[in-house]
Specification:
Layout: H1 10-22, H2 27-42, H3 49-70, H4 76-103, H5 130-140, H6 142-147
Helix pairs in contact: 1-4, 2-3, 2-4, 3-4, 4-5
Amino acid sequence: MPNGGGGASAAELSRRAVGRLLRGGTWQALAREVAWEAVRASGVEPGCLDWLTSLVEVRLAECVDGLAAAVPSAAPEEVGEILSRAYVEVLEWATAVLDDRTAARGAPSGRPRLAPLRRLRPRSDVEVPPLVADDLRRAASPVEDAAA
């Protein structure tokens, strides 16, 4: 059922989904939350938090821009799931960036590379906010939701 949001426009559904994900916070705080979790899970030194937050903010913005294209064909409850998947994808991407920086040894082309990050503790699993986990659980088990 395309855009079954009771007459809500795609822009309105997107706005609601982003507001829900922000959980009363700001866009910058959401980017910092993702960056902090990537730093925590990767075990690297926290000095990279500022530049990683900037990268995450840009990546999240790209995902939200892409959300606008997906919304017209999505049911309202799917919009949150789409955004939660994007949250996890950006978190995994940020963690991979940090993992790459810990392994940086020098570019084969001979051009200078950024100094590698130091890993202060072993890598651990990433954790997501309960709201994101709930959206992903719901997306993974639509049959259970229909029976509830």
